[in-house]
Amino acid sequence: MDKGTVVELTITDMTDDGKGIGHIDGLTVFVDGSIPGDTVRGKIVQDKKRYAVAELEEILTPSPNREEAVCPYFGRCGGCSLQSMKYEAQLAMKKEHVENKLTRIGGLEHPLVRDVVVAGEEPDLHYRNKATFAVYDGPAGPAVGFRERGSSRVVDIDDCMLQKEPVMAVADAIRRLIEQHKITVYKEPKRYGRGRNQKPPKQSNTAKLREVTVKACEGTGEIMVVLTVTGKQLPNAEDIVYAMDDAIDEVSEEYALESVILEVKKGDIHDFAKDYIPLAGKRTINDRIQVAGRDLEFEISGSAFYQVNTNQMTRLYEKAREYAGLSGEEVVFDLYCGIGTIGLSMADQAAMIVGIEEVPGAVLDANRNAVINRIVNARYYTGRAEEILPKLLDSEDKLYADYLYKDNLRERSKVVILDPPRGGCAPSLLETVSAIQPDRIVYISCDAGTLARDIKILQQNGYVFEEATPVEMFAWTMHVETCCLLRKRDAVEA
Question: Are 289 and 298 in contact (CB under 8 A)?
Fold first, then answer.
C-alpha cells in the first residue's frame, strides 16, 4: 500500500498504546485517534511489510461507544487514550484484551477472566498518587507537563483530571520558578558522531532540572517532591522549597509538603539515580491503607515503587490474598517485592513472608515497613530472586536465614507471589519458582502480554492457570492490572 494512499476502513480493536486497528485486504492498519466501531478515512503515512500506519482524516461513522473527550489536552498529551470512549466499553475492551492475550500468547483455551474490578459505576478522577512531570524551557517560555503523544515534546499542562489539586499546584510553582530564573532546566547535549575526537562537555555540579515527581499519600496527606537533577548543588534551594510549600497550602488543607529530595542523574534519564539527597524535610513519607480490615502503614522513599491508585491497590491486594488461599501454615515468597506492600498485607495469614528484591533501597524500606507494622514474621533480601531463592531453601547454605530451619519452615507449603515490572519475569526465575514446587502462584502484572508469555512457561513446568481478575488501576488509559491464580497440576488433577 503506497504512502499517501487514502483508505476507508472500520476499526475493530485498539493497540496497547491507544491506536485504532483496522484491516484492508488482510493488511493491518493502525489509525491514531480512532476507537473500535468507528468507520474512518485515513491517509497512509507509513507502509511496512506487515502493517501500515494511517493518519486520521475523517470519522465517517462514529462508533456507538464514542463520546466527547472532556480534557482539553486530549489527543496531544500522551496520557489518557480512552477519553473518547464510554466507560462501559473501556472495561469490556480491557477484559477482552486480557482474554485474547491469555489465549493467543499464553496458549489457553477459553481462560476464565472475571469482570474488571472497578472503584464505582463512574471512572475514577484525580486517582493518581504520583505524577512525573517533564520540563522544558524554550523561546516561548517554560512548559511543565507530560510528553506529547508519539513525541518527546512537552505539553504544558495547567490541570489534569487524573492528578490531585496539590500535585498540580507543585507543577505550577515549578513553572513560575523557571520563569523567574530560579530553576535552570537541563538541555540534552549535542550528540557526537563516530569518528569525531570531540567529547561531550563536562557537566558541572550545579543542579539542572530534568523531571519533577510528586508523591501524594491519601491516607496521611504527606507529599514528597523529587527533583530529578544533574548535580548536587541546587541554587535558590530555599526559595524553591518555600514556593512549592506555599503552592500546596494555597489549594489544600488536607495535604502538606513533608519531603523534598534531589534525585541526581548525570547520564541517561532512564538510568538508576546516582544519589538521593534530602533537600528539606524527611527522607521518607508515610501512607496508611486498609486491606481486609487491617490497618497498614508504609514508609515510602524517593526511589520506592508504590501502586499509583491507592483505593484500587487495596482491592488488588485483597484479590491477591483470596488467590493465595492462606491458612496460617504457609511460607509466602514475595518476589519482586518492592517495599513489601503485598506480602505485608497478607502476613497475618502466613507462617512467614520472605521477600526478595533487586533494588537495595526497596529492601531497606520493606524491612522498615515490617517494623512499623509490628510484623515479626517477615524478612527481606537483596538480590535476584533466581539466585537468592535456592540459597534460602538450601540446608547446607549457612549464609541465609537460620530462622527458616525453625519449626520446619523449609518443609511447609509454599505460595509464591510474582509482581514483576512491565517486562515480566526472567525465564530463569520461572524455572526456579517451578522447581521449589509452591502449591499456588499468584501473578500480578500491569502487562497482559508478558503475563501470558510467563503463564505459558509456568504451564510447561507443571502449573495450571485457574483464573484471572483484571483490576481498574488506570482509568481512562489502555492499561489494566491483572491478578492471576495458578496451581500445581498434580493437585488440580488429584
Answer: yes
Catalytic residue among 77, 160, 217, 446: 446
**What's the rounded Cα separation, in Å, for the pair 452 and 102?**
5
What's the start-to-end Cα distance of the chain, in Å?
A: 55
**C-alpha torsion sign, points 39, 42, 45, 48:** positive
Q: How many CB atoms lie within 10 A of CB 417?
A: 24
What gap in Å lies between CA 451 and CA 489, rounded to an integer?
19
Q: Supply 169's cell numbers.
A: 499546584
Residues for the chain: how many in total? Answer: 494
Distance CA(27)–CA(44), nearest Å, equals 12
Is residue 40 a contact partner of residue 58, using CB atoms and an 8 Å limit? Answer: yes
Q: In what order do the strands lie in the sheet with 378-382?
A: 378-382, 352-357, 331-335, 414-418, 440-445, 481-488, 463-471
- Most confident among 114-123, 183-192, 209-218, 359-368 (mean pLDDT): 209-218
| Catalytic residue flag (residue 484) | no
C-alpha 480/C-alpha 255 separation (Å) is 28
Which grid coordinates belong to 113? 477472566
What phi, psi does 454 have (nearest 5°)?
-70, -35
Residue 336, amino acid? Y
The H or E element spanning position 469 is strand 463-471
Cell of 162: 487524573
Q: What CA–CA distance (Å, rounded) separates 369 from 381?
A: 14
CA gap 458, 440 in Å, rounded: 11
Tens digit of each residue's pLDDT (9 = 90 or more) over 3-32:
899 999 999 999 988 899 999 988 999 999
Cβ burial, residue 461 (10 Å; 0-12/13-18/19+): middle
